[in-house]
Amino acid sequence: MRKYLDANIIENTKDMPKNEWLIKRKCGIGGSDASSILGFNPYKSSMAVYIDKICYAHLLKDLKGEKVSQNSDCHIEKDLIDKFISQDNEISYKMELGNKLKSFVASEFMLKTGKKVRNINGILRNDKYPFAIANIDRAVVGEKAFLECKVTNSFNKKEWEKTIPIHYQIQMNHYMAVSGATHCYVAVLIGNEELVIHKLERDKEMIDEIMKLEEMFWNNCILGDKLPMPDGSNDYSKTLDILYKDSKEEELILFEAESILERYDEVVKLYKDFEKEKKAIEQYLKLQMQNYEIAYVGDRKITWKKQVRNTIDTTRLKKEHPEIANKFTKTTISRVLKI
């Protein structure tokens, strides 16, 4: 079996079709999954990772070729599969363009630094972390390091100028854990006009914490088939609405929820206070702008413009044309939580 540093290359991806690669990467926790599990990924929730992996866990095998999971049936409801898995399997134009630009970023990195990089063309696994996989963009020749190529728009320039965003730091440390690399480089093309390069050293404490939480997630949620802990995401709410859409008119005593409800009351009060402060700030800005539509505070642009909105007067429609109103009335059923 081919190796890269401390990792085994378990799949050769050089000529692998993109759709097949998308399936293969579901058979373990990847770098971007790590930040989702830890709650730092702004683009993907831990629930999305759970749904993404649960139907493919049985495909993961250990180094001896034995199955790690016995979950051979995907019991997740079709609505959830359609919401998470089907969408994730789609190869978007943005994804294809980003992959093509990575070659340009790698070339620019070599030009700027004088370092050489090469393709690995494989999915990595380390026997120390059988639940984890890694797909690195390039290996840096002559160093125990890899290069990660990123492409972002100009709106994220401040986020990248001086440091690496935390969710990408987690991703890089995940890759260093799996590969055994001592450091890595992250080259990001910002707005197709500027290349920023960062070097990140291996952080043992961060790696230990990341891999501990990943292993807990894998054992409890994927192999143990338990839902992840609530994370406040819309994904989690929608999943609960789908899984528990049917209700029964019976009562339940929750013995361990008193402290949670106390915290809920505290959060509600804080939310109201912050909402009031937010409105006061908005009112102050409107007071300063008066009849002006556009204002600037440093490089921040503020607008207060007229907005036309057309709505149907349903009360009048029901009164004057009840047959039409009834014809286009749609009834939906959902469960509403009241505290």
From TrEMBL:
This is YqaJ viral recombinase family protein. Keywords: Hydrolase. The keyword NADP does not apply. GO terms for molecular function: hydrolase activity. Residues 20-181 form the YqaJ viral recombinase domain. InterPro entries: Lambda-type_endonuclease, PDDEXK-like_dom_sf, Restrct_endonuc-II-like, YqaJ_viral_recombinase. SUPFAM superfamilies: Restriction endonuclease-like (SSF52980). The keyword Transport does not apply. It comes from the Bacteria.
